[in-house]
Amino acid sequence: MTYDVLIVGGGINGCAIAREAALNGWSVLLVEKDDLASHTSSASTKLIHGGLRYLETYDFKLVHEALQERKRLLKAAPNLIHPIAIVLPQDNSVRPWWMVRAGLYLYDALAGFGNLPRSRMLGRRDGALRLPLKNDTPGFLYWDCTVDDSRLTVLNAVDARSAGADIRTRTALTSAKRNQNSWTATLSDGTDVQAKALINAAGPWLVHVEGRLGQAKRNSIKLVKGSHIVVPRLFDGDHAYMLQQPDRRIVFAIPWVGGTTMVGTTEVEVPNPDHPEISAEETDYLLNAANTAFTRQSNRNDISYSWAGVRPLFDDGTGDLRTTTRDYVLEVDQQGAVLLNVLGGKITTARHLAEDAMSRLGKAMSRTIGTVTRGRPFPGGQFPGSFESLVEENRKAWPFLGPERTLRMTVAYGSDLGIMLAGIGTEDAMGTDFGHGLRQVEVDWLIEHEWAKSAEDILWRRTKLGLAFSKDQVATLSSYVAKRAGCAGE
Ligand SMILES: Cc1cc2nc3c(=O)[nH]c(=O)nc-3n(C[C@H](O)[C@H](O)[C@H](O)COP(=O)(O)OP(=O)(O)OC[C@H]3O[C@@H](n4cnc5c(N)ncnc54)[C@H](O)[C@@H]3O)c2cc1C
């Protein structure tokens, strides 16, 4: 068989394009060398946002597009994506008050109507929001959204598969030969596949994959590492803080799983995308940002977890990492069978990027493309009432789950939880207990429906239970998954 399109890379961009292409009726093969979202797409700040700070670099198009996507995503995955209030303490030594106020007005205007609440100044009634801060300076409150980035990536792949896409994880593209009308690609399992078009969505490995396609080396990509640390809760409440730094960067402090706060991010140019890790300097930078802002102090011993990811940014020649554009660039090359390269992008704008990519591919291959995902819910994202009423229904349907697990599983699976737990009436009926509320029925679901093949896939990318698990618990889960995933014959 000759696929219409072969997509290299199972991050948010590759999976979103697979969804868009499959729903347009194209035959799709997506290959991912590791797990879905195992790199940049699980290492983000987990915000679905317009990017307030991009206004400073006049990236109005990006901010407008991202804010429209924020609105769409909130409707399409109301279980997974939630509004969050962000406190922005004012620091006149970094930016004047009027500039921040004007930026927030513009942000609200670009978001348009029917979106999240509009920004406002912090007032007397906001004592609880100001209390955790060392200096009770004036400031602002505005709204964006949070997301579980890796789950959103996986759900793109699940939706793509429901429309016929073939998704193969732990399968790398090792080389590809370009003919006039098709590609012949060799995969790491030794098989050869044919496709009419090839999409290089390998994120930070774009140049590496170009080498495997026999393309010339380019200089138009910048690899910029960003890191986060996780510390014990720095403040109470569900809101976040956006902290202005003396170097004009911003650092977010956002509530995270298990009563923690994540603090990030940094920007450090790196020579290659492999095994990014937080450095001592980045750790100190983030600790300093948090300790300068909050009364609750943290040190290196308080850090329970950290992660680093590499942004594959299009080098727009600005030379400054802070101001390098976060917008995506798509390149179509028709010297033989079609090749499309994806550079840059954001978790927030991946659906828009995918629509744009398919429209360009459609033109290049003389095929009509429809707008198939604009109003389409993600798997588990369609339910009649509000998210809160779904949590309440699930609490009544499976009272033995307890409030915390009901909330966690409703966020993760939305209305699909009803399918996962159909016919289950007791805790014991959920099968083996792997600890911290993770039971066999959920693990089996993740193996059968979401390509989970290791304990790490389950603990860090399909759920965020990894922080709670002991080494022994991970080992027990690993051996179960190895046996079960082997039997699933994937
Ligand atoms: C620190 C940080 C914070 C961020 N915060 C946000 C945020 O809050 N909100 C937001 O919207 N965006 C954010 N972003 C941006 C966003 O995370 C990225 O733009 C996005 O994840 C990039 O996705 P991708 O699919 O291009 O790359 P990736 O997720 O890295 O996917 C590329 C995939 O290609 C695979 N691959 C490579 N070579 C091969 C091969 N030969 N064969 C098969 N597969 C291959 C890799 O294994 C990888 O999984 C952030 C980024 C960083 C780094």
Instruction: Write down the domain tally.
Output: 3
CATH 4th-level superfamily of the largest domain: D-Amino Acid Oxidase, subunit A, domain 2
Number of helices: 14
Question: Would you identify the regions where 5 or more consecutive residues have pLDDT less than 50?
Answer: none
**Strand element count:** 20
Question: What about the largest sheet?
Answer: 10 strands, mixed
CATH topology of the largest domain: D-Amino Acid Oxidase, Chain A, domain 2
| Average of the residue pLDDT scores | 94
Shape: globular
The first-to-last residue Cα distance is 20 Å
User: What's the CATH class label of the largest domain?
Assistant: Alpha Beta
Cα Rg: 22 Å
Bound molecules: flavin-adenine dinucleotide
Do you know the CATH architecture of the largest domain? 2-Layer Sandwich
Please state roughly what percent of the residues sit in beta strands, choosing from under 5%, 5-15%, 15-25%, 25-35%, 35-45% or over 45%: 15-25%
Tell me roughly what share of residues is in helical segments.
25-40%
**Overall SS class:** alpha+beta
Structure, described:
With 490 residues, the chain is an alpha+beta fold. The protein folds into three domains: 150 residues, FAD/NAD(P)-binding domain, CATH 3.50.50; 168 residues, D-Amino Acid Oxidase, Chain A, domain 2, CATH 3.30.9.10; 101 residues, Alpha-glycerophosphate oxidase, cap domain (Helicase, Ruva Protein, domain 3, Orthogonal Bundle), CATH 1.10.8. Helix content is 33%, strand content 23%. It contains 14 helices and 20 strands. β1, α1 and β2 form a beta-alpha-beta unit. It binds flavin-adenine dinucleotide. The site of flavin-adenine dinucleotide has 38 residues, from α1 and β16.
